Amino acid sequence: MRRLGKSESNFLFESARVIVYFGSADSHFYALDANTGQQPSRFQTENWIRSSPDLSNGIVFFGSGDNHLYADK
After folding, report:
1. What gap in Å lies between CA 10 and CA 48, rounded to an integer?
2. What sign for the dihedral angle of Cα 52, 47, 7, 14?
């Protein structure tokens, strides 16, 4: 197990692909494969991510402290 960063957001679990999404205090938004622990996606913003991610039509949305809304497919 490895530490990715402090998180103040809730987690989002996408059961169709077994992916866990979360934002972190290190300004990154992570996607982790729940079965393998592999990190298929990591995106850096300009500030902490404290918002909880949401999933709609296969797109994950999250906000950052940099005052932007992001979408990741």
Report:
1. 13
2. positive
Residue 43 DSSP one-character state: E
pLDDT digits (tens, 9 = 90+) for 6-57: 556 666 666 667 888 889 989 999 998 888 889 888 899 999 998 889 989 9
Domain that holds residue 58: 12-72
Alpha-carbon span 48 to 27, nearest angstrom: 4
Q: Which two tokens stand for residue 33?
A: 């494969």
Query: What's the angle, vertex CA 35, arms to CA 46 and CA 22, rounded to 5?
Result: 20
Query: Could you give the angle at the alpha carbon of 48 between the alpha carbons of 45 and 53, nearest 5°?
Result: 80
pLDDT exceeds cutoff 60 at 63? yes
Work out how many domains the chain is built from and give that number.
1
Q: What's the CATH code of the domain at 34?
A: 2.40.10.480
Return the pLDDT at 65. 92
